């Protein structure tokens, strides 16, 4: 970002909307929609509105038109935001299903590996016993008994020992066979589960893309509403009242709003800077030997990674009782809890593959960091996403602001690390790259 202070995406859009509104005094504005859209909505200019006051019928027609435009803007934005929320929830559900299935498959594979080891040991023991029996049976005990009757006690003992050994062998062979069957059954289950992961991963990817498309559509609708509704309402005031200087007052209001948003952005930037400074001055969490200090952002270390935010870890990776839903569920990342509006940084360089409503993840950013690795940043404050899908970012670059959207009970960053799409515990993953979280 080239700005002198962090700005939310919503703030920048409000500035653009205000700037657009200022120049809407002559002619009409066509709402920018998808390339190739069949038609665009046109909005009345101030001159159109002023001209409509010449007759009662024209004035009423214009009032009806403007009210319809305002209602359409509200309805379109609301419907598309609901669609984005639904698409985000569907994406989250699909991603969670994949994550849980992955952990189950990994557990099955671990059990299969342990059973394979046990089976191999049982088979080795059975083999050793077979060799022992082979050596014992190589001597003809019956012949020895007839030719050396004086040694009959020892030989009868040997026969008894061989009988016991044979019984033991039967048990060992049976156990080895059972262990082999168990190992094979677990391996089969693991393979079946592994094959199912591909379909679940594809479903999660498709749902994520659908959620991104819905988020983009919703943002376009909100942008259109921001860019037009206040002006249309001011024009409606001009038509339905005896108010004077409506246009000039509207323009002045645009400038006041612009200044208010700038002041709010500066205040948020100052609060975020203070929170970051306080976190940097506080004692840091325990770190692996040789790791970098637990300071967020900044220049990437030799491995190319940084801490994604300040704050202590408040919830680890793994199954837990979700504090929002109160259900026992997988927590596929770790939670870091700095102050609200604190900066969120890209943990490593990469490309933004998702920036939008992630259902229970709230407003979320996902980066493809290359080599099968991706990182996700959830619960971003409304208006706090500072990047767009397809954008390249560098390690340590601010990409969002901490919030409490989605399934959240307070401001924090939900941070995930994934390898080939599967969630892994960020603590050892980041520690291996010299970063403590």
**Total number of strands:** 12
Helix content: 40-55%
**Tally of helical segments:** 7
Overall, the morphology is: elongated
* Cα separation of the termini: 25 Å
What is the assembly state of the chains in this entry? single chain
Based on helices, strands and strand pairing, what is the structural class?
Answer: alpha+beta
Short description:
It is built from 7 helices and 12 strands. It is α+β, with helices and mostly antiparallel strands.
Description:
This protein is an alpha+beta fold. Helix content is 55%, strand content 14%. The protein contains seven helices and twelve strands. The protein has helices spanning 9-22, 46-52, 56-136, 141-147, 152-240, 246-281, 426-431; strands at 312-315, 318-321, 328-331, 334-337, 343-345, 350-357, 363-370, 373-380, 392-393, 398-401, 413-419, 422-424. Strands 1, 4, 6, 7, 8, 9, 11 and 12 form an eight-stranded antiparallel beta sheet that branches. Strands 2-3 form a two-stranded antiparallel ribbon. The protein has a two-stranded antiparallel ribbon with strand order 5-10. Strand 11 and strand 12 form a beta hairpin. Helix 1 (9-22) runs parallel beside helix 5 (152-240). The longest helix is centred in the middle third of the chain and has 89 residues, at 152-240.
């Amino acid at each position: 970002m080239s700005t002198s202070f962090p700005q939310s995406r919503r703030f920048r859009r409000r500035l653009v909307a205000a700037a657009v509104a200022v120049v809407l005094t002559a002619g009409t504005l066509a709402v920018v929609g998808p390339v190739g859209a069949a038609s665009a909505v046109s909005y009345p200019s101030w001159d159109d509105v002023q001209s409509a006051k010449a007759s009662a019928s024209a004035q009423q027609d214009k009032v009806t038109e403007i009210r319809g435009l305002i209602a359409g803007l509200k309805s379109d934005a609301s419907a598309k935001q609901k669609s984005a929320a639904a698409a985000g929830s569907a994406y989250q559900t699909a991603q969670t299903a994949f994550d849980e299935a992955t952990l189950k498959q990994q557990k099955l594979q671990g059990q299969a590996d342990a059973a394979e080891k046990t089976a191999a040991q049982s088979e080795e023991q059975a083999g050793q016993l077979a060799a022992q029996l082979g050596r014992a049976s190589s001597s003809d005990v019956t012949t020895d008994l007839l030719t050396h009757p004086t040694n009959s006690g020892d030989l009868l003992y040997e026969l008894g020992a061989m009988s016991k050994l044979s019984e033991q062998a039967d048990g060992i062979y049976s156990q080895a066979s059972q262990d082999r069957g168990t190992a094979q059954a677990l391996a089969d289950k693991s393979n079946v589960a592994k094959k199912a992961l591909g379909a679940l991963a594809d479903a999660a990817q498709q749902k994520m893309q659908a959620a991104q498309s819905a988020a983009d559509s919703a943002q376009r609708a909100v942008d259109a509403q921001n860019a037009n509704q206040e002006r249309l309402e001011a024009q409606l005031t001009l038509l339905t009242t005896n108010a004077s200087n409506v246009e000039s007052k509207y323009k002045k209001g645009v400038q006041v709003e612009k200044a208010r948003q700038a002041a709010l952005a500066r205040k948020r930037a100052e609060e975020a800077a203070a929170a970051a400074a306080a976190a940097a001055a506080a004692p840091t969490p325990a770190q692996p030997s040789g790791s970098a200090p637990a300071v967020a952002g900044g220049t990437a270390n030799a491995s190319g990674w940084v801490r994604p935010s300040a704050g202590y870890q408040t919830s680890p990776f793994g199954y837990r009782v979700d504090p929002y839903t109160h259900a026992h569920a997988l927590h596929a990342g770790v939670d870091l809890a700095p102050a609200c509006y604190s900066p969120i940084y890209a943990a490593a360089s990469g490309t933004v593959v998702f920036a939008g409503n992630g259902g229970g993840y709230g407003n979320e950013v996902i980066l493809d960091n290359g080599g099968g690795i991706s990182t996700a940043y959830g619960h971003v404050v409304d208006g706090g996403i500072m990047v767009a899908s397809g954008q390249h970012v560098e390690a340590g670059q601010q990409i969002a602001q901490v919030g409490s959207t989605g399934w959240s009970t307070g401001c924090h960053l939900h941070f995930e690390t994934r390898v080939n799409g599967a969630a892994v515990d960020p603590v050892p993953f980041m520690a291996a790259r010299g970063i403590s979280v």
